[in-house]
């Protein structure tokens, strides 16, 4: 059996990197099985699934996809050429979301090393952002990062962003009236998950681009015209969700490298999932993440599980 003590340092570094990924309510719904080869299997941890707000397991897969991206980039930075198979055996081993063979060596590119080094600096930033616009070349870099992982990043114009903020506020109100949702939320926002110190301040005035997890501290005025973007995929199946997660983390690390932060407003998507609705076919694809982008102050990091808990 593989334990934290028998896993060698090189593999441990990959798992630590994977564990820094963003996840819905910081559930960290992943585990890893290390096999000879070495091959690392990424497993869904269904004990950390959110059955009320994520009935399809979409957000669980997106979160695990983000962890997979970190694992891949850490392997690249360590001079490996990871070969990844998504959902390698859905019939016999449905819990295995990906299989990463790290046996083959390959040169660590400067880009892989840089993205790997940015992992600890990426955080969800729920503070107000300043008024600076994000330069076109930075947006292009983020868009390219998403498309490398087979997803699309759409930047909304001011009018669409205002409409989406209104829609997020309506979704937020509807969620606040759902008792089962509130019980699930409370379980992940007191103590572990998303503790109060990372929930950001309450908004002064009309513009509130932050999802309310119930324990925001202090008050602040947010930027009057939040810069919003939507990450979409061509399909809306588990394999697409894993791709969305990898795209998310790739573009967030690219953003971090440019000093750009992100927070998320996925209430409309969660409400859609909870109502068991799917999107009408849209030429831009299926929305998987809604995010606010900009330049913000340094914020504290959310807690993470120790690596001993991550090994299956
Ligand atoms: C699929 C997914 C959905 C998320 N939805 C939201 C959201 O709606 N609102 C929010 O503020 N953060 C959201 N987050 C961010 C997580 O809360 C955050 O990643 C987690 O608390 C860990 O913190 P960190 O990103 O700072 O490491 C989401 C993250 C993922 C991967």
Structure description:
With 312 residues, this protein is an alpha+beta fold. The protein has two domains: 9-120, NADH Oxidase; 136-294, NADH Oxidase (3-Layer(aba) Sandwich), CATH 3.40.109. The chain is 35% helix and 16% strand. It has eight helices and ten strands. The protein has helices at residues 9-18, 58-77, 110-118, 136-148, 158-176, 179-187, 238-257, 267-274, and strands at residues 30-35, 39-44, 83-86, 96-101, 152-155, 202-203, 219-220, 227-233, 261-264, 286-294. The strands form three sheets. A four-stranded antiparallel beta sheet has the order 1-2-4-3. The protein has a four-stranded antiparallel beta sheet with strand order 5-8-10-9. A hairpin with a 3-residue loop joins strand 1 and strand 2 (39-44). Helix 1 crosses helix 2 (58-77), helix 2 (58-77) packs across helix 3 and helix 4 (136-148) packs antiparallel against helix 7 (238-257). The longest helix is centred in the first third of the chain and has 20 residues, at 58-77. The protein is globular, with a radius of gyration of 19 Å. The model has no long low-confidence stretch (mean pLDDT 95). Bound molecules: flavin mononucleotide (FMN). Flavin mononucleotide (FMN) binds at residues 22-26, 59, 62-63, 66, 123-124, 126, 194, 211, 263-266, 302.
């Amino acid at each position: 059996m593989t334990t934290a003590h028998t896993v060698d340092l090189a593999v441990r570094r990959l798992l630590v990197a994977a564990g820094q990924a963003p996840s819905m309510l910081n559930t960290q719904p992943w585990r890893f099985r290390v096999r000879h080869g070495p091959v690392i299997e990424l497993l869904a941890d269904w004990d950390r699934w959110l059955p009320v707000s994520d009935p399809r397991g979409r957000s669980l897969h997106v979160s695990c996809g983000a962890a997979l991206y970190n694992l891949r980039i850490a392997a690249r930075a360590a001079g490996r050429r990871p070969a990844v198979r998504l959902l390698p055996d859905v019939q016999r081993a449905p819990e295995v979301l990906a299989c990463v063979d790290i046996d083959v060596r390959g040169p660590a590119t400067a880009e892989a090393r840089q993205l790997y080094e940015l992992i600890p600096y990426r955080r969800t930033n729920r503070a107000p952002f300043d008024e600076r616009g994000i330069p076109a070349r930075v947006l292009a870099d983020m868009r390219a990062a998403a498309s490398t992982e087979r997803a699309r990043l759409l930047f909304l114009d001011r009018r669409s962003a205002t409409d989406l903020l209104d829609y997020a506020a309506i979704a937020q109100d509807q969620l606040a009236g759902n008792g089962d949702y509130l019980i699930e939320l409370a379980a992940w926002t007191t103590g572990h998950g998303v503790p109060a110190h990372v929930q950001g301040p309450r908004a002064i005035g009309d513009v509130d681009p932050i999802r309310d997890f119930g324990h925001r501290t202090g008050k602040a005025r947010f930027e009057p015209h939040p810069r919003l973007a939507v990450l979409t995929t061509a399909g809306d199946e588990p394999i697409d969700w894993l791709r969305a997660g990898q795209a998310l983390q790739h573009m967030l690390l690219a953003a971090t490298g440019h000093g750009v932060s992100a927070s998320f407003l996925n209430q409309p998507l969660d409400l859609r999932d909870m109502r068991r609705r799917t999107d009408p076919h849209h030429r831009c694809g299926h929305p998987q993440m809604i995010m606010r982008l900009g330049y913000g102050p340094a914020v504290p990091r959310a807690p993470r599980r120790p690596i001993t808990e991550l090994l299956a």
